[in-house]
Amino acid sequence: MLDYILKNAKLFADGQFRPVDISVKDGRIVSIAGSLPVFPGISVIDLRHTAVFPGFVDVHVHLREPGFSSKETIRTGTLAAARGGYAHVCSMPNLDPVPDCMANLECQLDVIRRDAVVHVHPYGSITVGEQGSALADLAAMAPYTAGFSDDGRGVQRPAVMRAAMDEARRLGKIIAAHCEDNSLLRGGYIHDGEYARLHGHRGICSESEWGPIARDLQLAEETGCPYHICHVSTKESVEQIRRAKARGVDVTCETGPHYLVFSDRDLREDGRFKMNPPLRGEEDRQALLAGLLDGTIDMVATDHAPHTAAEKGKGLAGSAMGVVGLETAFAALYTHLVRPGLLPLERLISLLHGNPARRFGFGTPLAEGQPADLTVFDLDAAYRVDPEEFQSMGRATPFAGMELYGVCKLTMVGGKIVWQEAEG
């Protein structure tokens, strides 16, 4: 493994930048100082005019392998993560085979060990086959998972969710819930708002999300299970989570970059604007922003969900649900929230690293003695989003064609460079 001196970096800490050199040896940060000497045999990288952050943590990605490698592979998905500044990602269990027992989970772990370029922490499923009935073998999988989720499907039966929470609490693991009441969907595929009414689309009501959240918050309060809510999108959800936190429920939640930047007023007749949950109304977007600022929303996760071009090429009505996000997340949030003064940069880094690291127990601070998991961005560099340049096999993103600020110049995981932007 090569040793490095990262020269002339701007380290962001305590709300401000300071110029430093960073020494990396044997995969760890040895020294952070104003100026470090260079010795023979050490590779020097000049990071002048760039900012250094701890490697980001995304607790919600779909890597699609095993089972759906026509959409994405662990190799391409983790390369996309590296290009986006991520050192740790949590992979969702809607796979084939579903990781509902150790034998099935091992199928995924084998590929992760072979092909991943960043740290991958898989979720085990909550129920067998994600079918919502019998509990998966949570105890066997617990040491090898980030937590348990049936993401892509909501657990419909309260008794099943209660049993899962009881077992997860016993094991000291998180339940990460996709909250969706199937009985309220009624064939909908975008938000039940003005755009749906004007254009003749079937809408998904907000209650299909906040109803299950209300149920699960009560169950989490009764069981004491550490509970995490995936991809929050409605104002009612934010308010329920805010109240639950105030009364001491052990709950965290995430939202996605697209819900913070777009609302249903931005919809186009294009599959790249279709995801689950859908883009909601402007009041919902504003409530999410308020939740970021007051701490109700703990983290931003991409819900990176690649599909083939054919699956995403059938408009709003016919396309598969899901967009990619690993390679645009930081730049989109920096451009649309930090630069306009809506969100402090320090808070954004907490949303992308500090808070998910504390909640899920992985991700390391940028500090002496820690593994060298870090990312480097040129915050003044702008680029136009071209999905054809993605490392991900997925191309569908609502950010396509937009100018964003913040180019990832380098990402290092365990002292190894896993992404470096080509010069020129």
Describe this entry's structure for a reader.
The chain has 424 residues and is an alpha/beta fold. Helices cover 30% and strands 22% of the residues. The protein has 13 helices and 17 strands. Strands 1, 2, 3, 4, 5, 15, 16 and 17 form an 8-stranded mixed sheet that branches. A 4-stranded parallel sheet has the order 9-12-13-14. α6 (207-223) runs parallel beside α7. The two termini are 27 Å apart.
Please render the helix and strand layout as text:
Blueprint: E1 4-13, E2 16-25, E3 28-33, E4 43-46, E5 51-54, E6 56-61, H1 74-83, E7 86-91, H2 102-115, E8 119-122, H3 138-141, H4 158-171, E9 175-177, E10 190-191, H5 194-199, E11 203-204, H6 207-223, E12 227-229, H7 235-246, E13 251-255, H8 257-261, H9 282-294, E14 299-300, H10 309-312, H11 315-318, H12 329-338, H13 345-360, E15 374-384, E16 403-413, E17 416-420
Parallel strand pairs: 1-4, 1-5, 6-7, 7-8, 9-12, 10-11, 12-13, 13-14
Antiparallel strand pairs: 1-2, 2-3, 5-15, 15-16, 16-17
Helix pairs in contact: 4-6, 6-7, 7-9
Sequence of secondary-structure elements: EEEEEEHEHEHHEEHEHEHEHHEHHHHEEE
Q: Low-confidence parts, pLDDT < 50 over ≥5 residues?
A: none
Average pLDDT score = 97
Query: What is the rounded distance between the termini?
Result: 27 Å
Shape: globular
Helix count?
13
How many strands, which pairing sense, and closed or not: the largest β-sheet? 8 strands, mixed
- Percent strand equals 15-25%
- Please provide the count of β strands: 17
Helix content: 25-40%
**What Rg do the Cα atoms give?**
21 Å
* Backbone structural class: alpha/beta
